[in-house]
Amino acid sequence: MGGPVRHQKLLDAVADGVQRVEDLARELGISPSTVRRGLTELEQAGRVVRTHGGAVPAPAGGELTWVQKGLRNAPAKRRIAERAAALVEDDHMVVLDAGSTTTLIAERLAGRSGPTVLTTGMGPMSALIDAEGIELVLVGGRVRRRRGAMVGEFTRGVLDRVAADLAFVGADGLVPGRGVNCPSPELAAVKEQQMRAARRTVVVADSTKVGSDAEPYWAPLAGPYTLITDDGLDTGARRALEGDPHCTLLTVPAPGAPRTPARGD
User: Fold this and answer.
1) Domain 3-58 falls in which CATH fold?
2) Are 56 and 74 in contact (CB under 8 A)?
3) Could you tell me which residues are beta bridge partners of residue 72?
4) What is the value of pTM for the model shown?
5) Residue (of 113, 114, 91, 246) closest to 177 by Cα position
């Protein structure tokens, strides 16, 4: 297949639900390496979003849904979620932000008995709706559907009356010394209020998010916080985090690395 023709056939196959590299190669009669190159070029053109092992169609509005975000770097996010859930004690009150990684944290808390979880996210809510050992509190507010997030004045007003032990906050990007990056002022305001509502803020973000400032709005990290990420950090990102006096860095093995205890245990 020629370049443009190959790309269109590849894009059509992804849109039809054939989204793993191996399946695309078999469907189109081309090599997996050719599929990977094509997907990379389509991602650069904004037509698909690469996931672990394949790709999904890019959202029409440019902003990923929380379900689509959950497919990106999923193995790293699962390890981050395991490490985060281990910080929760049975008598804790926990705030869970909306997002893919916080949904994975909620899934790992679902079998626990004792914690109280307040959430602004549809993902964590769904993960905990049948968890009888968890006291589940929905913060409420106007739903930003693409993100599965509750936002607005009502949401912030509820969080202003909360005194939690831990707040787990997701990020589209994180820049040490500046804060958490996200695509709307409403999301930024809720993240900031979540951090104020807890004694300890824990940002959960895979290593590709560290140093990223692609979105225009920020929730400042004004005080001490813990970052749980994978050890795929590049040298510059690690140096910046280690130089941030407010940051306690916990890393988990990147996908494919041996599973060893994270530093800070």
Assistant:
1) Arc Repressor Mutant, subunit A (1.10.10)
2) no
3) none
4) 0.73
5) 246
